[in-house]
Every structure is written in structure tokens, then in C-alpha cells.
Amino acid sequence: MMLRIKRVPTVVSNYQKDDVEEAGGGGCGRAKLPLYAFQKYDKVESSDKKDPPFAFLESLLLGEWEDRVERGLFRYDVTACSTKVIPGDYGFIAQLNEGRHLKKRPTEFRVDKVLQPFDGSKFNFTKVGQEEILFQFEASNDGEVKFYPNAPVDVETSPSVVAINVSPIEYGHVLLIPRILECLPQRIDHESLLLALYMASEAGNPYFRLGYNSLGAFATINHLHFQAYYLAVPFPIEKAPTRKITDFKGGVVISEILKYPVRGLVFEGGYSLEDLSNAVGDSCICLQENNIPYNVLISDSGTRVFLLPQCYAEKQALGEVSPELLDTQVNPAVWEISGHMVLKRKEDYEGASEDNAWRLLAEVSLSEARFQEVLALIFEAISCVVTENVSLPDEDEQDLEDVDALNNGSHQTAIVAGKQECLVQH
């Protein structure tokens, strides 16, 4: 099935130079602050309501994004990229995006450390052109959605902004940059994750998803940011069945993904977005502090979050990835892991199949043994304990064995999951 993509005028080469000149003195790029200080941007304040009265954020974002298309600020026309849904049970999505491969900014930091300090001498978002910023985005103080045209930029409070991704994967591809002028490194904290959940909620569209890549899991810029875009088909990972592991405090349900090539957790529900953010944020911080690369997908308008530890870069460094997969030059980050396969070679696009997608993603996944070790770290960090070990049903056990067979060339046995209970502090 071919996807129908909204067409916009053809864009020319990117306005930015590939090699951004250093803003004198290095540091955090604050030499560029006058661009922000003297420029006013629209501002959107997010409410804490689950059902905003209208999807104003969506119309604003797309309107501003198309305005930047007309100005020629993107490096290539993403709407000209061929896209199709691959036949199969999961409906993996394949896109041929040769422009992103040729023009994407290279990684400028180590890939074996999840936590690294911010380095102002490297590219960061204080160095982007001011015309790439769409608007500010922040939480409302009174629970109401508000829009302020031409709002002044308060440099002292370091606004959170939404900017275009000049090397887009899809229509409406943007970056959410929390507290941009604080120059935070690429590591999740509770406040920034909550902001991302609010953005997903206010967009009010289940096909608008946010993603996060840690360092070591194919983030390419060490300046805190989330990505987001629209794609009006279900992601394969969203279709995967899950098995509930525990009820967490605040009404959050934590489950394990089944029958999918990448092992991971799903966090759902919560009495508020803060409850969901706390559970996911604590888990992400645990992975960061234990130097475990991971990806995050925020789905279903901010009510469902996938947490996916991965090891592909480590396998690459150890020479454990097959030459066939390396030749594709696909770096499986959050979008690829979720089932949107951004391919760089025409031959891979034309030969795209569910088996090929599964084979690549199986290399991303932790082994069953390592995944259980990581689960133990997470549940210890969020005050959960294993109270009972139970064997998986035969069907589910076989599915997980199949994933390991793709990873290791042989079946794993004796797969066991733990029933979890959480200690809630009153």
C-alpha cells in the first residue's frame, strides 16, 4: 500500500551552512542571544486538561512548518520521498530518504557513553537561525490553553521552543527543545519529559508522536531535544501485544512488549500526565545512570510511552553486526525501532520486507538475559520488587525465543518473567 502524503511546494537546499560558524568564544553559543532577545515569537501555553477544546497546536505547528517550507529552510523536499507500507502482519513503513543520508549532520561525540557534558564548541541549538524557531511552548499557570502572538522572549527564564528539523523524516517534523538557553545535554529529566507529554496531549492527534534518542542510541546532537512528526498510519510497535507486569503508583500500568523484535516496556495511564512522567522519567534516569542506551516513543496523544533499551551501537563497535546490515547504513533510532524504516539506498527500499525489517531490529534488542537484568535495575530504581517468578505462557515464550534466535542464531530456553509489585510511599 502506498501512502498519500500532503504535497507542499518543492524546497531548495538548506539555508544553513553545513558547517555552522562558531559563535565567538564558544561556550553555549550565547553570542547569538541578541537574535532571540530582539525577536518575538508566538507562544503556546499547555493546559493540564486531557481534552483541549480544539487542536489549535496542531494547526499552528503545521501552518508555521509550511511557512518555513515556502522560505526554503529545509535541506530537501521530504514530501518527494517515496513511502510505502510493507505487506505483513505488522505493517512496517518504509521510506526512501536519500537526502537525509547525504545532508544529515554527523555525530560529534562518543557513542559509548550515555551521559556526557554539554560542549558549546560542538553544534547545538543556540546556533540555529532564528527563522527555524516556530514558537515557544510552556505549561499554563491556570489550566487553560492560551496563545500569545509575538510574545517576547525572556532570556532569563530560558524558554522551551519548537523548531523545524531541517533534515526531516516526515511531514511536520519538528524538534522540542526544553529550556534551550540552559544548554542541557541530551539526558531526560522529569520536567522536560513532562513538557513532551504535554505537547503530545495538546496536539490531540494520535498520529502525532514524539521520540527521544539517548546518546549511544543514535542521538546526533548532545543538546536536550525531542523529535516529533505526523504519520497517519499505526506504528508496528503500537500494534504489538503486551503483558501487564505491574500497577505502579499514580495509576500507571507497566507492561512488557511481546511478539516484537525489540524488547521493551510500555507505560500507560496514570491519574495525571505527571504520574506517567514520573514513572517513565525515573526509569529513563535509571538507564542513563547505568550507561544503558535507550529510545523513547510517546504515543496516543501522550497517554502511552514505550521505553526501549538497545545495544546496536555496542554491537557495531564489537564487530557483531553482519556486513549485510551494515551496508544498509541504517542507524536504528526511535523511529526505526517503532517500525518506520528510513532507508538510504533504493535497493533496500525496493526489496523492503517484513522479514528484513524484523532481522534488522532483532539486532537492536537486548538478549532475554540482559533484558531481565535491566528490568531488575529499573524496578529497583522505581521502588518495585519481584515477589513471584512465573513462566510465560508457551506461545509468548516461543515468540521471545524467536527474537533471540534472530539475534544469536539459536533458540534460548527457560525464559522467565517476574510478577512485580510496587511499594507505594504514603
Automatic annotation (TrEMBL):
Biological process per Gene Ontology, one example term: glucose metabolic process
Subcellular location: Cytoplasm
GO cellular component terms, A-Z: cytoplasm
InterPro entries: GDPGP, GDPGP1_C, GDPGP1_N
GO MF: GDP-D-glucose phosphorylase activity; guanyl-nucleotide exchange factor activity; hydrolase activity; nucleotide binding
Keyword Nucleotide-binding: yes
Keyword terms: Cytoplasm, Guanine-nucleotide releasing factor, Hydrolase, Nucleotide-binding, Nucleotidyltransferase, Transferase
Keyword Protein transport: no
Main location (coarse class): cytoplasm
GDPGP1-like C-terminal domain ranges (all copies): 236-383
GDPGP1-like N-terminal domain location: 57-229
Transmembrane segments: none
Family according to the record: Belongs to the GDPGP1 family.
Protein name, per record: GDP-L-galactose phosphorylase 1
Species for this entry: Ambrosia artemisiifolia (Common ragweed)
